[in-house]
Amino acid sequence: MDPVVLNNIKKAVQEANRHAVSNASKIQKFRILPEDFSIGGGELGPTLKLKRRVVMEKYRDIIDEMYDDPNAPPRPPPQQAPAEPLSHAPLPSSRPSSETNSEERLIAAHLDELSIHLEKERSLAGLPDYRSRTSSNLSDSNLPPYPPIQTQL
């Protein structure tokens, strides 16, 4: 990733943290993902709302790496679910535990806050607001394409 862009993102995060009402609402860690969220990628719905569950599943390894304790023993690999559940076995609850749910809400809040600050950076850089693109004007040749995000993991 371009060091200038990364530095601007870090400054935006620091600025957001200065205005945070508590430590819990501060962005503690962040990662730049290899590709933008999109409707085609499944991370955004048709009204451009973030599909948090899809993001959590698609980027689970990156998210887990952010929260892993380096001194903790390695985790066993996740168990594969059977292809078809047995008819007599109860289905596992699809509702996450309260701890996972609160982590997801916290991550989602940080994603929302970072999204707002990235849009401010786009605006300051003179780039168009992605929300102005609707399905009727996506092919409009007057709109420049978004620059690709270069990342190094």
How would you describe this structure to a colleague?
This protein is mainly α and 153 residues long. Helix 1 crosses helix 4 (98-124). The protein is globular. The chain contains 4 helices and no strands.
Task: List the SSEs and their pairings.
Layout: H1 3-18, H2 52-58, H3 60-67, H4 98-124
Helix pairs in contact: 1-4
Summed up:
This protein has about 150 residues and is mainly alpha-helical. The protein has helices spanning about 5-20, 50-60, 60-65, 100-125.
Query: Radius of gyration, Cα only, in angstroms?
Result: 19 Å
Main pleated sheet: none
Number of strands: 0
Kindly estimate the percentage of residues that lie in beta strands according to DSSP.
under 5%
Span between termini: 9 Å
- Global outline: globular
Overall mean pLDDT = 75
Number of helices: 4
Stretches where pLDDT is under 50 for at least 5 consecutive residues are none
| Helicity range | 25-40%
The secondary structure category is mainly alpha
Spell out the helices and strands N to C.
Answer: HHHH
Which keywords apply here?
single chain, 153 residues, mainly alpha, 38% helix
